[in-house]
Structures are given as C-alpha cells and as structure tokens.
Design goal:
This protein is mostly helical. Helices cover 73% and strands 1% of the residues. The N and C termini lie far apart (64 Å).
Length: 414
C-alpha cells in the first residue's frame, strides 16, 4: 500500500510532463515561423528539430551514464530534464508575443482604434525587437503588410477546430505530412534501436550504439537546418524519404537472414536475447539504420513541422495546429501500440518492407500534394493555398475606388 502514493505521483508527473512537452513542441515551430523573415524561416524553424534531436542525444547519453545505477538511475535522468525545463521557462519570459498573433487580436477587436490600439502597439514593439530595428520606422512597412493581409483574410470571430475544414488543401498537407511522418516507421525504429543493435550482435554495447545513433541524427538535422532555405522543402523531403525507403528495404532483407544462437532452434522458438544476424548482415543493418535516421532528419523530421507552421491560414492557425498535433500523436500511439503485434504477425523483415512501401507512398504524396514554400511570406503562402492569389487582382480593381486600406497609426508615445 505504501507504494501506491509513489506510483500515483509518478503517473501524475509523467502526465503533466507529457502535456508540457506536447504544448511546447507543437507551439514552438508556429511561433518561430510567425516571427521569422521569409528568407531564413526554414533555417530557424528547422533549428527547433535540431534542438529536439540534441535533447534526444542527451537522453540517450544520460541513460547510458546512469544505466549502472539500478534504483536511482532514472531519477537522475529526470532531474537533468527538469533543469533544462527550468532554463526554458525562465528564458521564455523574456520573449515577446508573436507580432502576427497580436495583429490578429487587433483585427478581431475591430480595427485600429480603441481596444485594438494596445495589441497593435505591442505588435510594433515585438516586431522591432525581433528585427533588431533601430527605430519604429524601420518596421512600419512590414507591419503594414501583415495588417493588410490580416484585414483581408481574418474573420473577427474566434475560429474553432471544425472551421479548419473550410481550408481542405492546407489541412490535407499539414495532417498528411505528420501522419506519414509517423507511419513510415520512425517511432518503431527509434524506440527499438537498442534491440535492433542487439539482434545485430552488438550485445552489451547496444545502448552505447544508440548514443551513436543520436549523434548521427543530430548531424543530419544540422545539415537540414543549414540548407533548407537554399534547397527548399520538397527537395529535402524527396531526398530524405528516398533514403528512408532504401534503408528500410535493406533492413527488411537483412532480417531475412536472422538466426538463433542456440543450435537446432528455429527463429520462431528462439529467445529474443539469442537472436542474431550473420556478421556481414549485422554491419549492413547498422549502416542502414544510420542512413534511415539521417534520411528522416533530412526530410520528415524538421520539414514536417516547418510545413505545418507555414501552410495553415492565420485565421485558423491555432485550431489547425491542434488538429495536426492530434493526428501526429494518434499516429505515434497507434504505431507504438501495434509494434509488437506487427512484429509477431509479419516478423521484422515483413514490418520493414511494409514501412518501405509506406515511404514510397509518402514520396508520391509529396510529389502530388506538397507545395514549395521557400522564400515566400506566410501571407503569400496563405493566398496561394486558399485561392485568394488568383482573385486578388479583380478584387483590388473593384475595391480601390471604394475605399483605401487603413494606414496604421500608433499612440504618440511611440
């Protein structure tokens, strides 16, 4: 009975921790996309994935460091995570709200006067902070563009999740990319990395091999962060998913040759700890794993979150992000829960071949559905995906004689 409060406390802590990770992980890419200039938006949003991967590497590393401490080891790992969380909490208090979000609030308040004056002034201050401008005049043109686009596209009511279905193309792109990100095997491969190394014959050094896997993921993510605004989103997705497909095909082929160390014992009747691969295939498995995680971090890993931060219209960005997050976590949970069943039903090689097929489907999806957003402002992307880009000229001609777009003005204190 004495253990019940401890277990309850652990469960509650894990629940709160998971909620915090979910909120921060999904809000950060959108926030960064909204505050970034178009020419470097890809680099800055992709840097989120680089930090996440670096954190995963630290998780593998500290797990290995504390693995010999039988009772308290996991507590030390949690303590390290708590220290980093505290640093983040302190840091975020010094960062202003997104200027686009503040403009959205101003438009929904009814214009540029009265109740809308305060959020617009805050938006001006925030944009000056993020651009490092010497004076407010340096950011007036950009803020006016943001305001004009918001005024033309934003409804004054607060949108709900069901309203996102009014924008089918952005919804298909955003939810489709995070769904395919999960069902191409990333959760299963990552969660079972240590077991895969054991199956490949690395034994006691399997945990350390997982640390090496984290290093490879980090290096690949740095490459994407460095080159995403030069090569574009589609090229990196094509390259990364192709690497994943080839690696999964190799992994599936390698595990066809899995054997049992115990003489005269079949693979089906063999203990998991006694399964191994011939030396050549074992080394190929390690190489394929490295290529797989590199491909994921070049393509799906950072680009998926970059795309969902770009494609959703400002009017429904919050609800649409929430829906994409639900799709992402639901797919992740399904893949995790079904991993063991799939392994027992189709064997490891069958599962890897299945993931390879889904990777090919993902390539087709990117080719037919995902647009290139490199170098475009969020307002330009929204106009293109919602169809307003084609209507803009005629609308402008019909409206220009009727009324002029309001010019922003702020309190004399600025």
């Amino acid at each position: 009975m004495a253990a019940c409060p401890v277990l309850l406390g652990i469960c509650l802590g894990v629940l709160v921790y998971g909620l915090g990770v979910g909120f921060a992980m999904h809000a950060a890419p959108v926030y960064i996309a909204e505050i970034s200039p178009a020419e470097v938006r890809g680099t800055l949003v992709s840097a989120v994935e680089a930090v996440i991967v670096f954190g995963m590497f630290l998780g593998f590393f500290f797990g290995y460091v504390f693995s010999d401490i039988s009772t308290l080891g996991w507590r030390f790992s949690v303590l390290v995570s708590g220290i980093f969380a505290l640093i983040m909490e302190i840091g975020i208090t010094f960062v202003p709200e997104s200027p686009r979000f503040l403009v959205l609030q101003a438009v929904r308040c009814g214009g540029i006067l009265g109740t809308a004056d305060r959020p617009l002034n805050e938006a001006r201050e925030a944009l000056k902070f993020f651009r490092g401008a010497a004076s407010y005049l340096d950011i007036e043109d950009e803020l006016q563009r943001i305001y004009d686009e918001a005024l033309n596209s934003v409804d004054r009511r607060v949108f709900r999740t069901r309203d996102t279905f009014q924008y089918p193309r952005p919804l298909v792109i955003g939810c489709g990319i995070v769904f395919l990100q999960q069902i191409t095997g990333q959760p299963s491969v990552l969660y079972s990395a240590t077991n895969i190394f054991k199956s490949a014959g690395f034994g006691s050094s399997a945990a350390l091999s997982s640390v090496g896997l984290g290093v490879v993921k980090f290096i690949a993510t740095l490459f994407t962060t460095w080159r995403v605004d030069k090569y574009g989103r589609r090229l990196l997705l094509f390259s990364g998913i192709t690497m994943m497909a080839v690696s999964l095909a190799l992994l599936g082929t390698a595990f066809l040759f899995q054997q049992c160390r115990v003489p005269e014992t079949s693979v089906e009747n063999c203990s998991e700890n006694d399964l191994e691969l011939p030396r050549a295939w074992a080394m190929l498995t390690v190489v394929a794993l490295m290529v797989y995680v590199s491909g994921y971090q070049i393509g799906f890993g950072p680009i998926s979150w970059l795309l969902i931060s770009e494609v959703f219209p400002l009017n429904v960005r919050g609800p649409a992000l929430a829906l994409a997050a639900v799709v992402n976590f639901a797919a992740n949970i399904i893949m995790t829960l079904t991993q063991e069943v799939l392994q027992e039903t189709f064997t490891s090689c069958g599962v890897f071949y299945g993931y390879c097929s889904l990777a090919i489907v993902s390539i087709i999806f990117v080719w037919r559905v995902v647009p290139e957003t490199k170098g475009k402002s969020l307002e330009e992307i929204e106009a293109e995906l919602t169809g307003r880009l084609k209507k803009a000229p005629s609308q402008h001609n019909s409206q220009v004689s009727q009324t002029a777009t309001p010019t922003l003005s702020f309190s004399s204190g600025h």
